[in-house]
Amino acid sequence: MAAGPGGLAGTTRLERAFREEWGAVVATLARRLGDLQAAEDAAAEAFAAASVTWARDGVPPNPGGWLTVTAWRKAVDAHRAAGPRSTSVDPQVLGSVTADARTAPDIAETDMTETLGDDRLGLIFACCHPALAEDVRVALTLRFVAGLTTREIAAAFVVPEATLAQRLVRAKRKIRESGIRFTVPAPERLAERLQSVRAVVYLVFNEGFASSSGASLIRDDLCDEAIWLGRLLHRLMPGDAETAGLLALMLLHESRRAARLAADGRPVPLAEQDRSTWDSALIAEGTAVLDEALVLRSPGSYQLQAAIAALHAAAGSFDATDWPQIALLYRALARVDPSPVVEVNRAVAVGMADGPLAGLAVLAPVLASGALAEYGPLHAAHGFLLEKAGDSERARGAWMRATETLDNVAVREELLRRYVEPLTENPGRGVENGGSAP
Amino acid sequence: MKYALLIYSQLNADEYGAVLDATRQADDNDGPWVKYTQAARDAGVLVGAEQLTHDDTATSLRHQGDDRMITDGPYMETKEHLLGFYLFDVDDLDTALDWARRMPTHPGQTIEVRAALSGLPWQRALAG
Fold first, then answer.
1. What is the CATH number of the domain that holds B20?
2. pLDDT-derived band of residue A431, with 50, 70 and 90 as boundaries?
3. A185 and B94: CB-CB below 8 Å?
4. Closest partner residue to A131 among B1, B93, B118, by Cβ?
5. Which conformational region is residue B11 in: left (phi greater than 0), alpha (psi within -120 to 50 degrees), or beta?
6. Domain spans, chain A
7. Which pLDDT value is given to residue A83?
8. What are the chain A neighbours of B98 within 8 Å (beta carbons)?
9. Which of these ranges, A122-126, A259-263, A411-415, has the smallest mean pLDDT?
10. Which residue of A80, A117, A189, B95 is most buried, as measured by CB atoms within 10 A?
11. Which chain A residues have a beta carbon less than 8 Å from that of B101?
12. Is the C-alpha dihedral spanning A102, A103, A106, A111 positive or negative?
């Protein structure tokens, strides 16, 4: 079903199509059965049957429908085999389908294809339900919506495969037993639940984009999965501005992927990136999606962050960037979604727009609060602004602090190499908005 | 689907006693828990509800080997005490969580939402 043990890299279009089909079957079955495990088992049997039948008789005209109806029948068989005492699936649900699948397979097939969009959404909402722990939401979404294997997810998040498998088993049981439904939430709950879905997608993206641990700065595969999820969600909920904002944000970040790492794997700060290597197609797409979102006039955190990323993407150089506008957007972001991390980024933007002293003034309360004492980018931003203000001595102390607090080996080594080891003046070095994703 | 909404509180026995005294003296037909219970009953989803004595006064029967030992105190000494529960019959977890969210709880209280199993043999005996 997927790439080799090395991870998800090199996913071919065929594999992707296969995974999409698998995800669609699981979504439809899960919604009807209310049980992810039963859906997964039935889908596996249907794909096994397809490999035999299609090889012999050729691919049917509607492969997706064939797979879904076959999986459905397998689920009904499994239920019958388990006997009437089986409580994993509501017998009433299965009763209604048994009739469907036996007497009117064509009707069942049409019905199933028509509700596919809803099924997909329902599955996403179940996997991202706030009653599940965040890491569990991420694992479920990658497994059942994106169709990654347990082994691939375990490798991407550097956890033992057995541990992850166990978490998934428990999560599937919790969904079934606690009555988490595979449906789009009622309107009064939709905003909150959508927020949880977007957070999961962005978490996957961030884990890939600026991985918090491990030796590699960018785990491309996770970014790809997150963007794929973002596109799917945007396609299913085109009228939701923040969902569009999230997709735009990821596309715009992703456009700089090639420029963010030097050939030897060292991170390249925004100020020094070769802007000709930025992916203009992704920038165009991201900007277009953002424009679509802004028209909906329902502003939010992802749109603001995407707007900031779009300004970076539109700038000819680091110095020629519209820093005053970016500083304003960070101020708006701080109102919508206040956090010390936003203040750190705002300080860098203000420092570029109004001078390093103004930036340091924004940073001072964050430093004083101690809330982010262990947050490397805070100290990197501090060092950057001090350096710009001409205070090399204190800047070096801040860089040192930054290297102590960063988990990412590549970023830490680069900071050490640049700012701490030489113990010489090293002015004018830019750090990409304090080292975090801007 | 039936859900138990278990209400936990950090009040110790003395504090809980004071709260109960105040509640009894107020004899308030319009209090938040009265309204909440009324709303749940009116919605036709309330199966039952009980408020418990503090687990300070609990008695535990421990089955050890062939013996049943009576001990003074709760099964487990914890900071959070189970002080009551509502039993709801609603469609899904989201609806149960909505009812949990509507409870007029105080900061420091926790509602644990647990789905009840169904279709077990002993439950047929319960139905008669």
1. 3.30.70.1060
2. very low
3. yes
4. B93
5. beta
6. 194-315, 322-435
7. 63
8. 189
9. A411-415
10. B95
11. none
12. negative
| Number of domains composing chain B | 1
How far apart are the CA of B123 and the nearest CA of chain A, in angstroms? 14
Q: How far is B83 from chain A (nearest CA, A)?
A: 22
CATH tag for A322-435 (out of 3.30.530, 3.30.70, 1.25.40, 3.40.50): 1.25.40
On the question of pLDDT at A112 being above 60, the answer is no
Residue B121 in contact with partner chain A when CB distance is under 8 A: no
Asked if residues A19 and A1 have their Cβ atoms less than 8 Å apart, the reply is yes
For residue B92, the chain A residue with the least C-alpha distance is A179
Which of A178, A182, A188, A190 to mutate against chain B (most B CBs within 10 Å)?
A178
Banded pLDDT at A5 (limits 50, 70, 90): very low
DSSP A229-290: HHHHHHHH-TT-HHHHHHHHHHHHHHTTHHHHB-TTS-B--GGG--GGGS-HHHHHHHHHHH
Window 57-116 of B, Cβ < 8 Å to A: 91-94, 96-98, 113-115
Least-confidence region, from A60-69, A405-414, A426-435, B51-60 = A426-435
Instruction: List alpha helices for A128-240, DSSP H.
Output: 134-140, 150-156, 161-178, 187-209, 220-236
Q: Which of B2, B5, B93, B111 to mutate to test the interface with A (most CBs of A within 10 A)?
A: B93
- The verdict on a CB contact (< 8 Å) between B92 and A180 is yes
Among chain A residues, the shortest Cα distance to B114 is held by A178
Q: What is the mean pLDDT of residues A413-417?
A: 69
